[in-house]
Amino acid sequence: MNKEYLKLYLVLETHMLKVPLEEFIPAVVKGGVTCIQMRNKGRTSWEKFFVGQMVMKLLADTDVLFVVNDRADLAATLGADIVHIGAKDIPLSVAKKTFSKMKFGYSCNDEDDIEIAKQADYIGVGPAFPTTTKEDLRGLLGPEGIAELVKLTDKPAVAIGGINASNA
User: Fold this and answer.
1) Which end of the chain is more exposed for a tag (fewer CB within 10 A), N or C?
2) Where are the alpha helices (DSSP H) in 10-155?
């Protein structure tokens, strides 16, 4: 996986948008986003599919990766570039066998996760900061903890969790 695509990684929760998706996606692409992960926790499968189709259409003529969170089946159905999963999702080894043509990101919070992530194409490490977008948040790592875990792997990595303009 080309780590250049992880330079500005946006985690999309459409319920938090202040403008229509059709305005938001082109604006963030113009602003330099290199990867968009559709997360949308709490949305139905149909809603995720519909939004995913819209995002895919809006990214069609760009060099921005599209990642689907948690759902390899949905990512494959949409034709997404990557699926990002974590410790509470389908095991990475099973997902890779079932969806062998897909690329995978894996969320890491400790050394055990880093070991599992050897099978992934890249890792998301965190949470970096407190966040209200996820109820079952794992232990807060902070920037120092993230740096320590990233040293344990040669995988391309992106920090995740509570990152915004004021703390980036």
Assistant:
1) C
2) 21-30, 45-58, 72-78, 92-98, 111-116, 142-150
